[in-house]
Specification:
binds ascorbic acid; mainly alpha; 218 residues; 6 helices; 83% helix; 0% strand
Length: 218
């Protein structure tokens, strides 16, 4: 038990490391190379940049933190549970703004919505995560299912949540790839910066997932 607990907390440190690194690299990318982040701008590029910024730094990062709350929040189980729910809620709210930003960008440049594989994976993930949040709320918080039902649902809640995190990572990576291709960045320093960002996002996902996996053997 002690060994698993220790490894689980080391895994959350790995997640923090790669999560924060991904945020820093993404900010360098969007602020230094891509002209900044602004929802209400007349410059379509600045409007677009809200999308990757909020989908990773808002949505995926906070969802990952929410998943690790039972390991990282030094409080009673019920308080951890409230933090788990609230971090997901804030992440989802920021995700809605991030998705709205890319629709506004498409509108500004007259581009079609929902044509890429990235958009299909991303929206599917976002909708399913929203439903999983709602199901978690009604089953585990209010009005709350019976103890037997909650116990039966828990492995599904955890496994499906972990799958959703990998789906979100898949959406992020296909999004970054699409950006590199569309902007013709192959071979440029900016492409390497984006590649490192993607790698950090992937490793963030893996460390969050492992910390959840190991926690449940404790
Ligand atoms: C809850 C909660 C849990 C589960 C458990 C049944 O509401 O906080 O950890 O349900 O009691 O698996």
């Amino acid at each position: 038990v002690v060994v698993y607990r220790r490894s689980a907390s080391r895994l959350t440190i790995g997640a923090h490391l790669f999560g924060v690194l991904a945020i820093v690299l993404m900010l360098i990318w969007l602020l230094h190379y891509r002209g900044g982040i602004e929802y209400d701008s007349d410059n379509p590029a600045r409007v677009f940049n809200v999308h990757p910024f909020l989908m990773f730094c808002g949505f995926i990062f906070l969802v990952g933190q929410a998943m690790m709350a039972y390991k990282t929040v030094p409080a009673a189980k019920q308080a951890q549970k409230v933090v788990h729910m609230m971090l997901h809620l804030v992440g989802i709210a920021l995700g809605i703004v991030g998705i709205a930003a890319v629709f506004r960008f498409h509108d500004m440049i007259g581009a079609e919505d929902m044509v890429s594989l990235h958009s299909w994976i991303g929206l599917t993930t976002f909708i399913m995560l929203g439903l999983q949040w709602l199901l978690g709320l009604v089953s585990y918080m209010f009005p709350k299912a019976s103890l037997e039902t909650r116990s039966r649902m828990m492995p599904w809640h955890i496994s499906f949540g972990r799958a959703l995190l990998y789906m979100a990572v898949a959406a992020a990576l296909t999004g970054l790839m699409q950006r590199e291709t569309l902007l013709n960045l192959r071979g440029h320093a900016e492409a390497r910066l984006i590649n490192f960002t993607g790698l950090c996002i992937l490793l963030f996902g893996i460390f969050v997932d492992l910390s959840v996996a190991m926690a449940h053997h404790a």
